[in-house]
Amino acid sequence: MSSSDVVAPGADAADGQAQDALLALAEVAPRPARRRRATPLGAQEMAADLPVARVVLDLQPAHLDREYDYLVPAAMADGVRPGARVRVRFGAQEVDGFVVARLAESDHDGRLAPLRRLVSPEPVLTPATLRLARAVAERWAGTTADVLRLAVPPRHARTESQEAPTPDDVLGAAPAAWAGLWSDYRGGEAFLAHVSGGGAPKAVWTPLPGLAAPVAPGATPTLPHWAAAVAMAVRAAAAAGRGSLVVVPDARDAARVGAALETAGAPGVVRLLAEDGAAPRYRAFLAAARGHARVVVGTRAAMFAPVADLGLIAVWGDGEDTLAEPHAPYPHARDVLALRSDLEGAAFLLGSPGRTAQAQALLDGWAHEVVAPRDVVRARAARVRALTSVELASEGPGAGARIPTAAWRAAHDALAHGPVLVQVPRTGYLPVVACAACRTPAACEACHGPLGLGDAGAAPQCRWCGRLAGAWRCGECGATGLRAVRVGTERTAEELGRAFPGVPVRVSASTAPGGVLDRVPARPAVVVATPGAEPVADGGYTAALLLDAAVATATLGLATGTRALHRWLAAAHLVRPASAGGQVLLVGDAAPGPTGAFVRFDPGGFAARELAERVELALPPAVRVASVTGDRAAVGAVVGRVDLATPATTLGPVETEPDGVGDGSLFDAVPVRVVVRVPPRDGLELAQQLRASLAVRSARREPGTVRVRLDPEEMV
């Protein structure tokens, strides 16, 4: 029998009705049904009460994205509840699914098949999560099954059977040193008052730089100010009896928020991180689903965490790449959680050292700005100086060096008082090299990828395919010597070690032997780190050198300037204030826009100008954009079925690189990209049309590969 003989879609599923209409189109040829013997319903007794289970299935094809009805065997009746995991027969295969409802009857005219197995009676899919998953799938042209794979972690049977300890849910005493954290911000105390009163305010927040005041008198500050401020906001939600969700870019930030929450006396805190492994992640998820945890702190994997009575959603680090979901339907945590705050009536707090154009757009009628007055910012920030070629024109021969004399002098003086941070854009030793004679970039003979050096005595190696090029010779001039084009953390640390003998030099990077460091003591040392890997220094750094600034703004992309400013400000936030001698030197000729905003410590002004330019040029987020990438014929077919009430602007097709490493094998030929652009008011219609077009493509089994992304962070 065909799959339609086995199951039937739920009558109240709007998406199912839309896709039923698609499948009824004359041009969609139905697949011939395979004749199979029907399952005899008399073989087992069905549940007497609410005998029908409505199930959402883990099915990949877009045209099957709907809910299906099954009969509930009497033996499973007690465990088959909304949110439970089940296994069913769908056509010739068995698939997993979640029960979303128990019904007295089905409106399907055909015969219903029984559930095959109750995998677990644990209700892991809550109604709120299902509603959010449907909304995300609709907005980003995905399927509900794709979103549920992101929302509900895989089952870990042993963890599920264990009795998890209940976190302490008693609100502790607030630290007196943090009582006025939000009073330094315009609108800060009002935001906290609304949260503690059970309200749902929305705020885009630019935190003050520096470390939070220590709770114990005379102690050295060790926690960033932003983490303490987030903890006090969570405490306000707890005072109203409501739960909180805090999403951060990485595990180090999650640990900092966790430490701040403990200090602030926030109750019932669990940590939900994908990198912790299957069992710890599922344990934290169950604690939230069972109502044992009132506060969930985690990375992108936690954005769907089922926190009961959600009162506050806080997102930290907007502008970090790790907040963008790399799996279909490719939503961004910022946008998902803004949507969730509306659906669940929760307060929303979006904070970052910098500010993206997307965050700035939220201030247009949806969120309020929470920032400190300029005099307060100046009092808390380090002194910032941009060492451009113009600034260094009078320095003599040393002006053109990668680390000019002024920077060496500043580092030398600062080391007398504590640690110095050196930010380097790239990891490794010499990640990019060129011919020493003619300066032609050195390329691999096999794949034409860039060559680099792993250490001082290593042979050149391709950064794409890994092939060694010990006998490399320049294809232009025949020379065999190499020179550095880009310098990484290891070579920088080597140079600094020679310049400051006797001073410890530590490297914090994903490729460093010690990995990414979390904290360093308040002793003289040079800390070399890549953006995002800077450890917190107890008491703050005495100085920071941000090298190769021109590299940060040299790439082509919409967010290049915003991303560079974000990374510079994140490092500057770890430096002592100017009143304590703290200074930051930006070394290199970076783009003037982000450079000026950095010197002024003004991410809000830069974001406002960025957004105004994008409005004028019709670029996101001033418009909604869909990027359709894949084989030329497949892309043309998907885009060709989009028929909007208001005509869209279509750009392309143009040949493009695959979206990620290894993606080239997905496509039959060189992939192309088409960009479809519409006003924000037509964004949902565009997503629905693309979703419907993908359903037709799936039903027809059209050849080729297509990837659809709504609201991509970049368009090039």
Automatic annotation (TrEMBL):
Zn(2+) 1 binds at C435, C438, C474, C477. Zn(2+) 2 binds at C444, C447, C462, C465. Keywords: ATP-binding, DNA replication, DNA-binding, Helicase, Hydrolase, Metal-binding, Nucleotide-binding, Primosome, Zinc. Gene3D superfamilies: P-loop containing nucleotide triphosphate hydrolases, PriA, 3(prime) DNA-binding domain. One of its GO terms (cellular component) is primosome complex. Its cofactor is Zn(2+). It holds the Pfam family PriA_3primeBD. The keyword DNA-binding applies. Residues 54-153 form the Primosomal protein N' 3' DNA-binding domain. One of its GO terms (molecular function) is DNA binding. InterPro entries: P-loop_NTPase, PriA, PriA_3primeBD, PriA_3primeBD_sf. Binds 2 zinc ions per subunit. One of its GO terms (biological process) is DNA recombination. Coiled coil: none annotated. Belongs to the helicase family. PriA subfamily. PANTHER family: PRIMOSOMAL PROTEIN N. Component of the replication restart primosome. Initiates the restart of stalled replication forks, which reloads the replicative helicase on sites other than the origin of replication. Recognizes and binds to abandoned replication forks and remodels them to uncover a helicase loading site. Promotes assembly of the primosome at these replication forks. This is Probable replication restart protein PriA. The lineage of its organism: Bacteria, Bacillati, Actinomycetota, Actinomycetes, Micrococcales.
